[in-house]
Amino acid sequence: MNYVTSKIIKRMDNFKVRGDSQAKQMKVLLPLSLGVSSISLLHVLDQQLHIQRKRTSRTGYELHVLFVDHSSIDEQTSGVRYLNLVEEMYPSNTYSAVPLEDVFTYLNSSDSLHWSSSGIPDEHLNLPTSSSNTERFKSFLASLPSVTSKTDLINILRTRIVVEFAKEKGCDYITWGDSTTRLAEKTLSETAKGRGYSLPWQTADGPSPHGVTFNFPMRDLLRKEITTYATLTDPPLTSLIVKQSISRPVSASSKDTTIDDLMSQYFHSVEENFPSVVANVVRTSSRLEAPHRYTASTTTSSCNICGLPMDDDAQGLHGWGGDQESVSVQPAEQCPEAAQSTKACYGCARSILRREDFV
């Protein structure tokens, strides 16, 4: 119990109550997936805020909890009902629920989210403008070429919604509930998808290209340790957990198997017998640094799908083949497809476009 709590609180050292009572209170957004990690993180943070109020009559930060509802595409995830239970157990925080299909609302209102300028062929998106957001979103998912693409885009759009919501509410930080195991999965899966250059932002604490600082207070904890912790609290947190860890075997040859499924299965088995391997993957990725050209003020382009920065001359499938450092670009007049994909990075272009678009 104390081991898990101390690991998280140590990572939240910047959120202590400061001596200056007139200082602006920080706002922290916690995306809640209703999985064991995010529920456990909420439990620890709520305890931290309770102790701060008891000792100083104020807190070091304001916690806003956001749940992105997937029920429109997965009827088995009745998350809003469980969110109500979470709110009853931890009533001191602010809670919001946003349907995943509301991404189209953000697409219309945000300067950084535009399908129209992404370079994705309209006939492949198949988005009837007169339909509801739910229908349009289902139509969009149906247009994607594979199960891996669907999972990838759902994860990307969920992150974009969380980021835009954080900006809308004036949040200074987004505190993700990713465990060591989850960060190791993400390290390999994002690399396989063509976004390895983004790991410094996706797995480490610090400023992100989205304009909000990311924080990973559970990065030193294995998923199995968090799962055990959730059963030992009083009361146990198991009644609030909907999203369970994937432990069923998956076939690498199945067309319904995603890259994320394979990584989840692999690290589920590795952390049982070789936990140090999982920790080493995360420690290695934490040593990576974002290329200076992506952090300097001269950066001018970003992917209109995932929002990550990219070179002006290295966009889409024909701009580069995964090599961020050495780019060979064909002129647009020689390769019309290159011009067509000029607003999508390599990873997103592979997820969105069908095979015949880039062979």
Task: Describe the protein.
With 359 residues, this protein is an alpha/beta fold. 44% of the residues lie in helices and 9% in strands. Helix 8 (180-192) packs across helix 12 (275-286). It has helices at residues 2-11, 36-56, 79-89, 103-109, 122-125, 133-142, 147-168, 180-192, 199-202, 223-232, 259-273, 275-286, 292-295, 316-319, 336-340, 346-352, and strands at 26-31, 61-69, 94-99, 173-175, 206-207, 213-215, 301-302, 309-310.
SSE order and pairing:
Elements: H1 2-11, E1 26-31, H2 36-56, E2 61-69, H3 79-89, E3 94-99, H4 103-109, H5 122-125, H6 133-142, H7 147-168, E4 173-175, H8 180-192, H9 199-202, E5 206-207, E6 213-215, H10 223-232, H11 259-273, H12 275-286, H13 292-295, E7 301-302, E8 309-310, H14 316-319, H15 336-340, H16 346-352
Parallel strand pairs: 1-2, 1-4, 2-3, 4-6
Antiparallel strand pairs: 5-6, 7-8
Helix pairs in contact: 2-10, 7-16, 8-11, 8-12, 11-12
